[in-house]
């Protein structure tokens, strides 16, 4: 009886460490130009089952030469060939049902290029996204013409791809919202930031009306000119007719006057 009791305690004692949360041996840091990244994980006991590595809820396959899985059953190693900043994130080694351990592959933040400028119609909404790579997630500070923007009834800041406040949303854009918008993505872990700017212009929503009015005015003026010309032409034609009919009469007069003039000389 006593023996069975003892064995039960012993089994419980041995089994307990199997379920313990395990630790990360050393997170790897991404640097631009690295040829490989080595992530490893350390489990204090167990490790008989082959591990499966996960990244963003997807199990990683040893296909191609992108990922290589080495190490020992208790200290599995994941090697990533030609890593990019997109590979940064949290990796999990799953030991079946026994344990999981996570490794952070960290990278300083980088804001991807934005369009240089954009136009938005007055009273429309402005929606700008700061597309950031890096891990852990960065925290964004937005500036307009160098002045920090804070959240208000009209200005909303939303998380984007896990990065805090990376999306700026302004409702009912006014002319005063025009300016240079800057996204500053800051990482506490790296104590470094990445910055990109774009120029926002606010257009008059009925701006298209003015050229149309111009065209209409031009057509009307043209119509008036054509009408006047036609009227003048008609009048000239009538006068020409009148002159033609008067010419014979006038000529007689003229001849008479000439005669008179000649007399004077
Ligand atoms: C990545 O690059 C950095 C700086 O160039 C270097 O210190 C580090 O050892 C490299 N890591 C790997 C795994 O190659
Ligand atoms: C695994 O972690 C334990 C406890 O932190 C440490 O004593 C041991 O040296 C580590 N083993 C390896 C292979 O890193
Ligand atoms: C992974 O799955 C969890 C739970 O289903 C979810 O909350 C999380 O957003 C997922 N992560 C990614 C990167 O898809
Ligand atoms: C390990 O992670 C997976 C997926 O998140 C989860 O289903 C499982 O319960 C975890 N196992 C342990 C022992 O924590
Ligand atoms: C890995 O990153 C997560 C999320 O930022 C953090 O909670 C966790 O403490 C990190 N792990 C280590 C070992 O630094
Ligand atoms: C802008 O915000 C950043 C981060 O919160 C802060 O460090 C900085 O002092 C602020 N600048 C001004 C002028 O308020
Ligand atoms: C962060 O970097 C700035 C300079 O870039 C430095 O003045 C400051 O002391 C650093 N802060 C920490 C906590 O390392």
UniProtKB/TrEMBL annotation:
Signal peptide: 1-21
CDD domains in the cross-refs: Ig (cd00096)
SMART domains, sorted: IG, IGc2
Domain of life, source organism: Eukaryota
Keyword line: Disulfide bond, Immunoglobulin domain, Membrane, Signal, Transmembrane, Transmembrane helix
Biological processes annotated in GO: homophilic cell adhesion via plasma membrane adhesion molecules; synapse organization
PANTHER family named among the record's database cross-references: CONTACTIN 5 (PTHR45080), IG-LIKE DOMAIN-CONTAINING PROTEIN (PTHR45080:SF8)
Residue ranges that the Swiss-Prot or TrEMBL entry lists as coiled coil: none
Pfam families per record: I-set
Bilayer-spanning residue ranges: 208-230
Keyword RNA-binding: no
Gene Ontology molecular function, alphabetical: axon guidance receptor activity
InterPro entries: Cell_Adh-Cytoskel_Orgn, Ig-like_dom, Ig-like_dom_sf, Ig-like_fold, Ig_I-set, Ig_sub, Ig_sub2
GO CC term (a single one): neuronal cell body
Protein name, entry field: Ig-like domain-containing protein
Keyword Membrane: yes
Domain Ig-like: residue ranges: 17-92, 109-199
